[in-house]
Amino acid sequence: MDLVLSVADHYFFTPYVYPASWPEDNIVRQTVSLLIVTNLGAYVLYFFCATLSYYFVYDHSLMKHPQFLKNQVYREIMFTVKSLPWISIPTISLFLLELRGYSKLYDDVGDFPSGWIHLVASVVSFLFFTDMLIYWIHRGLHHRLVYKHIHKPHHVWKIPTPFASHAFHPVDGFLQSLPYHIYPFVFPLHKVVYLGLYVLVNVWTISIHDGDFRVPQVLRPFINGSAHHTDHHIYFDYNYGQYFTLWDRIGGSFKHPSSFEGKGPHSYVRKMAEGEFNSLAENGCKSEKLCNAEFAKTK
């Protein structure tokens, strides 16, 4: 985060916002700056990526599903807008520790004998480490003593859209992001790689709520994609993982996505439409033109 803050200081905060007497390394100034940068970045990333996904990836036919709520998209957005600032408060405390040198983040690839090999290995390590912790945190949030107080608001969206991706209770949102912040305090990680991964995991979170189930056949047993996560929202006790199916298989919570078997929400909506068309046909239409018009409405 110091890379982002240094750019913000150089081009905005130092010349236009803060007085010259307030040094850039002052902890109070850094805290205020991190609050601004973190919230602004979160909103920009959320609205930009979720909007693109909603208009260009998301299958809007899912909005005809009976479990899709009235004004759901608006409600998802408003829930997110209200939650993100609260999620950012504990988050910036960890960013502040990173900023002040308490993490194992580094600048130079040459700091390690293995150089680029270590950098690539750290990416793989980051994904598997965070996937493991998120699995257990997420599963813990489904415990009956915790669920109704913290995680239940996210499960209001049975048929989620990309805008539901960050619609969490603030405690829930922070806990599920915690593994991303823990990693650089335990393992060395390049600062640019960390920033890139942080953006990636937010984009991934949006992608598993986008209702698009096109995953290469060879990857379906291993990748926890949108089809897996949709079943998590519908059936509750399955597919807690973030990127991979590994820990769901180890923990006995893996469920083969119903959408891959023709039993998912897409199939349900399609059968609903076919049922309405068949009902029109059975009741008789005054003309072929009228029948076609009615069928177009159901589609």
From TrEMBL:
Keyword terms of this UniProt record: Iron, Lipid biosynthesis, Lipid metabolism, Membrane, Steroid biosynthesis, Steroid metabolism, Sterol biosynthesis, Sterol metabolism, Transmembrane, Transmembrane helix
Residue ranges crossing the lipid bilayer per the database entry: 32-57, 77-96, 116-137
Entries under InterPro entries matching the protein: Fatty_acid_hydroxylase (IPR006694), Sterol_Desaturase_Related (IPR050307)
Keyword Iron-sulfur: no
Chief location of this protein within or outside the cell: membrane
Domain Fatty acid hydroxylase: 124-252
Pfam families to which the protein is assigned, alphabetical: FA_hydroxylase
Localization per Swiss-Prot or TrEMBL: Membrane
Presence of the UniProt keyword Ribonucleoprotein in the record: no
Domain of life: Eukaryota
Cofactor (UniProt): Fe cation
PANTHER family: STEROL DESATURASE
Name listed for the protein in its UniProt record: Lathosterol oxidase
Species in which this protein is naturally found: Microtus ochrogaster
